[in-house]
Amino acid sequence: MAGSIRSYKDLKVWQVAMSLAESCYRVTAELPRDEIYGMTTQIRRSATAIPANIAEGYGRESTGAFIQFLRVAQGSLKELETHVMLAERVELISSEISVHLLGECDRVSKMLRNLIRSLQERT
Question: CA-to-CA distance for 89 and 116, rounded, in angstroms?
Fold first, then answer.
């Protein structure tokens, strides 16, 4: 890892993914109570899986394993995007909220791709 990276918490992609997860928690807190075991749980689970997989992969101390976990994080990100789009389609969230969350997802996605490419170039 880069010289100034001493922990997964120093990774910008982890920090941005945590902000995305936080945004998702705040948005889902406003969903109807009858969605607590539906969309609320699905959005929160997929959102928290993104930074969690970044951290777990970093903790494996193997570049190959780290890349694998970053790819799992990408999968969780695509799952989150799908839940957000569906939540908008069934009118649980506004298009404004959807656009905001999907923009954050896009940012994390680009960061994950760049980090994976960078790690692959080193091996």
Answer: 32
